[in-house]
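Complex 343.
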Amino acid sequence: MTGPMMRFDRFVEEALYGLRGFYTQGGKAGVNAGDFITSPETSTLFGGCIAVYLDRIWQELDRPDPFIVVEAGSGRGTLCRDIFLSVPQCSAALRYVMVERSEVQRLDAFDSVAATCFLDAEEAPLTAVKDLPVGPLTGVVLANELLDNLPPRVVQKTATGWSELHVNGGLDEWHPAPQNAQNMATLLVPNAPLGTCLPLHLKAAVWVNRALNLLDRGRVLLFDYGLQQTADFSERPMGEWLRTYSQHHRAGNPYKEAGSRDITCDVAFDQLPGFPQIVTQRDWLLAQGLRAMTEWAREQWHDSAAAPTAKALAARALLDEAAALTDSEGLGAFLVAEWRVGD
Ligand SMILES: C[S@@+](CC[C@H](N)C(=O)[O-])C[C@H]1O[C@@H](n2cnc3c(N)ncnc32)[C@H](O)[C@@H]1O
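Predicted structure with S-adenosylmethionine bound:
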């Protein structure tokens, strides 16, 4: 797609979700045949921790039945599968809605979760839909690595104000930003040095508002990479926070060969509405009891490390997965934002 000049966010929208977009054509997370690895694809422990969280929230909400969990950007359904396989206490009340924009992933995920977790797929308390359902609902809206895939606008500080990124024939072009984008950028980073580039997450903010409005009581829980403050983007080159991936490798220039690669942006969490509580993924997973969940593996490995058995090696692998999920230089540094609704 070389096409006409387009504002960057519109270009990304087409490049990811258009007719020949990256996700439309089947781009996905996953170790084998995937393009990138996410926390659910790293370990079943991630889903195990979310199952613990869901039980706590179900209790806090006085055990609603139905207890609706909406997972947005559910991809291959791995997180949903691991939550059901954890058999949480809320299972009998749990109704799970996978929301996935990519049709191929949505259909595959439904079939695979239903076949893995339920004897009768027809009776599975599970649906897979293209967009957020209609509320009001009582429950939890959650998403892992969704916001970074909601196309941002991008602006750059110049001597005369802010310019906005456009794409023209595979090249980047900067044009004076409209007043609303100028105002937003100035409010976010009033004294930005010349040359500062920033993402403006209008789509992500609108999406979070929709998620909040879906609930009468419950929580919105979002995991993603990014920074708490937009101002902190001004110290980083744009190529660091706006990235492309294909088949597990960084894939270079985002303006070319649209549809051939994922385009993703670190999230500036201060641009999201409301006042979420924000912690790192490492702290969040530990608070759900990740250490206790892996205690048996530590003991198993400790007892047999000198002459490892197959069971000890499996235990070692689980400990490695836990370390990857909580690594402060990697997945553990992701941010977890939680909004409380109705209490
Ligand atoms: C980076 S992947 C993450 C997949 C999965 N959550 C995981 O952690 O492995 C982002 C997913 O969000 C989906 N997506 C993007 N925008 C969406 C939207 N507005 N509603 C639902 N899904 C969306 C994409 O199609 C893609 O499958």
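Residues 44-60 form the longest helix (17 residues).
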